[in-house]
Every structure is written in structure tokens, then in C-alpha cells.
Amino acid sequence: MECAGGCTEPLDTDCFACRNFNNPGSCVPQCPQTLIYNKHTFKLEPNPSAKYQYSSICVAQCPSESTHSMLYPALPGAQLSQSVTS
Q1: Is 55 helix (H, G, I), strand (E, B) or coil?
Q2: What sequence ranges are listed for the domain Furin-like cysteine-rich (predicted)?
Q3: Would the pLDDT of 85 be above 50?
Q4: What CATH number did the domain enclosing 35 receive?
Q5: d(Cα 49, Cα 29) in Å, to the nearest integer?
Q6: DSSP state of 41
Q7: What's the number of domains the chain is made of?
Q8: Domain of 32?
Q9: Does the pLDDT of residue 32 top 90, yes or no?
Q10: In terms of Cα–Cα distance, which of 55, 23, 53 is closest to 12?
Q11: pLDDT of 30 strictly over 80
């Protein structure tokens, strides 16, 4: 079971929160990988259902910098490091 914090039913789609990753609609141990093994050709092939890990969410595309800034604003008192020239 991939649920954390309880669920409404016994399925991984019925969780209040996910233990590992939330693949929209279902809690999963890992996001779908970019390559999958084809046991008929014995080769790794692109996975059409691949997703990327973004925090604890599986996403089809990495968010833009502006989306990232809205989701994770700088902490109060944090400063960006800048090179100082004399």
C-alpha cells in the first residue's frame, strides 16, 4: 500500500496522501521511468507513459522556472549567492 496518513478505500487511488509519489490519481513507489525493457526485443525502449519526479509528484513535463518560483518561493532571509568584483 502506497498510502500515507490513511485512505477511504483499500486502493492506492483512495489515499489522503502518498507515501512516495503521486502519479495524478494514484500513489506509486516511483514515477514511470523514461525507458522500459522490452522482453521480446531484449532492448530498452522509450516509455510513452514516462513521467518526471518533481518533488513528490510525477509530471509529464518539467515546470518552467516561473512555475517553480511560484511553487517554491525563496525562504525569508535567504540570499542568492553573487560573485563580487572589486
Answers
A1: coil
A2: 2-68
A3: no
A4: 2.10.220.10
A5: 15
A6: T
A7: 1
A8: 3-62
A9: yes
A10: 23
A11: yes
